[in-house]
């Protein structure tokens, strides 16, 4: 059962953050294509890069959780996710943003995989099934938050408010990880 473990919400918060960063950009196709000077095909690559990275990171993620407990891996991956998620908003160069989305996808994919492993190690039976379902739903929920809030945040605060708000959603989970390792 997950009830008594103080780390039980870490993967859920992290996957919500990953969902936001994955999908927020898609709420602003006209603005982002104009900002980056690209067409819709190139815009589509901004989704393909992290999704390809999600696949590529599976084997290394598996190796990491065979050698280490999930908490330090979630902390390291979460810190990379936070740094790269914020850095995505700092460039107006398509090749740089594309490369950063690919790099960020490695961190995001690591969190997706290791988070699911973390849950499976904390829960069993019906609780594990329920928690995995909630975990998957929260990825979509994070994406929904990005679609809802990114346009207004970018309009009000500029481009630094596209991916960064989703990335900073990870901070409470990273704090829990850090405190549990101290």
Structural write-up:
- With 182 residues, this protein is an all-alpha fold.
- 80% of the residues lie in helices and 0% in strands.
What is the CA-based Rg, rounded?
16 Å
Number of E-type strands: 0
Biggest pleated-sheet summary: none
Shape: globular
Helix and strand element order: HHHHHHHHH
Provide mean pLDDT, rounded: 95
Proportion in β-strands: under 5%
Instruction: Provide the helix percentage.
Output: over 70%
Number of helices: 9
Poorly predicted sequence stretches spanning 5 or more consecutive residues: none
Termini, distance in Å? 24 Å
Question: Which structural class matches the secondary elements?
Answer: mainly alpha
Which descriptors apply to this entry?
182 residues; 80% helix
Offer a concise description of the structure.
This protein is mainly alpha-helical. The chain has helices at 10-23, 29-36, 40-56, 58-67, 70-87, 94-122, 125-157, 164-168, 171-181.
Could you give the topology of this structure?
Blueprint: H1 10-23, H2 29-36, H3 40-56, H4 58-67, H5 70-87, H6 94-122, H7 125-157, H8 164-168, H9 171-181
Helix pairs in contact: 1-5, 1-6, 1-7, 1-9, 3-6, 4-6, 5-6, 5-9, 6-7
């Amino acid at each position: 059962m997950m009830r008594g473990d103080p780390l039980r919400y870490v993967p859920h918060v992290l996957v919500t953050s990953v969902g936001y960063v994955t999908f927020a950009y898609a709420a602003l196709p006209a603005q982002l294509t104009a900002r980056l000077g690209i067409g819709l095909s190139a815009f589509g690559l901004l989704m393909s890069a992290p999704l390809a990275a999600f696949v590529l990171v599976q084997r290394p993620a598996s190796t990491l959780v065979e050698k280490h407990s999930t908490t330090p891996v979630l902390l390291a991956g979460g810190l990379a996710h936070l740094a790269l998620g914020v850095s995505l908003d700092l460039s107006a160069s398509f090749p740089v943003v594309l490369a950063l989305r690919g790099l960020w996808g490695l961190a995001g994919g690591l969190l997706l995989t290791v988070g699911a492993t973390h849950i499976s190690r904390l829960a069993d039976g019906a609780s594990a099934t329920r928690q995995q379902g909630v975990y998957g739903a929260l990825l979509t929920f994070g994406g929904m938050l990005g679609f809802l809030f990114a346009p207004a945040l970018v309009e009000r605060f500029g481009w630094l408010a596209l991916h960064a708000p989703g990335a900073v959603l990870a901070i409470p989970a990273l704090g829990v990880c850090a405190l549990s390792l101290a």
